[in-house]
Amino acid sequence: MAAQPTIPRRGLFIGGGWREPSLGRRLPVINPATEATIGDIPAATAEDVEIAVAAAREAFSRDGGRHWSRAPGAVRAKFLRAIAAKIKDRQSDLALLEALDSGKPLDEANGDMDDVAACFEYYADLAEALDGKQRSPISLPMENFKSHTLKEPIGVVGMITPWNYPLLMATWKVAPSLAAGCTTVLKPSELASLTCLELGAICTEVGLPPGVLNIITGLGPEAGAPLSSHPDVDKVAFTGSTETGKRIMTAAAQMVKPVSLELGGKSALIVFDDVDIDKAVEWAMFGIFFNAGQVCSATSRLLLHEKIAKQFLDRLVAWTKNIKVSDPLEEGCRLGSVVSEGQYEKIKKFISTARSEGATILYGGARPQHLRRGFFIEPTIITDVSTSMQIWREEVFGPVVCVKEFRTESEAVELANDTHYGLAGAVISNDQDRCERISKALHSGIVWINCSQPTLVQAPWGGNKRSGFGRELGEWGLENYLTVKQVTKYCSDEPWGWYQPPSKL
Ligand SMILES: NC(=O)C1=CN([C@@H]2O[C@H](COP(=O)(O)OP(=O)(O)OC[C@H]3O[C@@H](n4cnc5c(N)ncnc54)[C@H](O)[C@@H]3O)[C@@H](O)[C@H]2O)C=CC1
Ligand SMILES: C[N+](C)(C)CCCC(=O)O
Q: Active-site residues (predicted)?
């Protein structure tokens, strides 16, 4: 088992320095795998939000923006690359903090840190490329006007992020917003903020101008709500539950503030009868048991062609029995604890409701017997599910998959689209034409073919319907933080000639 690190005691990271929260309150950090309190984080309130937003505003306009918001993208790229390098230097201690804070297996947390560094590097490249995209000419059907566009940073951005991928979800927002020239106030989830606070320490080490990135930890209603309604915040970017997303959108609407929302999901994985069963089983497991199913894009509904359903479920159970469920720091752990007691209770309730509604718990459904403490739930497979059941309709955000059989392609598509959500969908089949047809027919922002969950920083990420709107990652992620200005010039020597000139007499 890896050594337990000391948990750094941090303040709020505002204006390039550490500050105690105005009301002096702190929140405990609980290791969900042991239930032990391992540290604490500051609890910001509206007073701190004021100070952080003011620091971000000052940094945005400092020296007319010469050193940040209007500086060449190449200048900002250097900071992004320096942050990526520091993340790599500190990879093992950051991964350990992430695992202790969230309960995810250390191997997963290590992978997250790779993705974090890669995301900063990717947006460093895009920041540089932005310089070449300025003054893009617009082709016009006349000669007396010339137009071009400028891509400008949207301003001060408020970011509210979740606990399932604490530093990675923050990075998906922070990296492109910094690349664009925005300044930012980040409010990570109170359930897992440690690595985001360490990002503050890294910003100091790389000499990021003060106030460009501010990090305030605290509770949603106390710190997140005043950030989303703040009149001096130009945009809010949010990842989290659909309920909170609605609140944020309502608050932002009062100021006609743009929002991007990455919310929940109830994505389906469709498996046809022409597949290699074991390969498909492994993707089905990765789709729902990775990060203990606490993934917005988790393929939590498994649709099996009736011809292979029985054989598939037998193999799924056999593979699932083999998952190492353990303390996240144990070698080979593939399923850690869920993030908190609240989430643990919520998942157990989903399972008991499924049972009481008539579904069968084919495997799992309880606390693993060998783990007495910690918020552990067995990987759970639920069958005999009808489309009116809660387990079919609602996001569990836990290691719980529900299974249905289908006969035809159109039935599979109909079942997959039978949800208010629209984040992701996946299909496994050896018939490539069928996969293409299904990728068009699914009402979702992401489709995986012959896999589930792989996420590439270059490709757009986001959902439709109640999974939200706006796209992160790729060039779309940068556009989120840019506003387009048209500049139009009259270039004829002739007078405009609309009004009658006054008499020269
Ligand atoms: N789409 C996703 O990636 C995520 C989905 N969820 C879903 O949400 C459920 C509940 O988890 P929670 O941690 O309660 O999610 P949440 O949506 O309440 O929390 C996400 C973030 O929003 C903040 N927040 C909460 N209330 C707020 C408010 N009124 N104004 C502004 N910010 C606010 C939180 O402090 C946190 O930083 C999960 O069971 C899961 O179904 C949770 C986290 C991530
Ligand atoms: C694709 N993955 C698992 C790396 C991240 C998913 C992001 C999310 O849950 O919001």
A: 262
- Rounded to whole angstroms, the Cα distance separating 436 from 447 reads 10
437 and 479 share a domain? no
Based on the structure, what is the number of domains in the chain?
2
Distance 224 CA to ligand 1 centre (A): 10
Is residue 262 flagged as an active site residue? yes
189 lines ligand 2 (CB under 6 A): no
| pLDDT-based confidence at residue 345 (cuts at 50, 70, 90) | very high
What range defines the domain where residue 411 resides?
A: 268-449
Ligand 2 close to Cβ of residue 461 (< 6 A): no
Active site residue: 108, 121, 262, 472, which one? Answer: 262
Ligand with the closest atom to the CA of 221:
1
Contacts of 491 (CB under 8 A, 6+ apart): 143, 144, 145, 146
CATH of the domain at 400: 3.40.309.10
To the nearest whole percent, how much of the chain has pLDDT over 70? 99
- Token pair 């937003």 is at which residue? 53
Do 81 and 203 sit in the same domain of this protein?
Answer: yes
Pocket probe for ligand 1: among 41, 48, 112, 160, the residue whose CB has the most ligand atoms within 8 Å is: 160
The answer to whether the predicted template modeling score (pTM) of the entire model surpasses 0.90 is yes
- Angle in degrees, 0-180, between the axes of helices 91-102 and 73-89, rounded to the nearest 10: 70
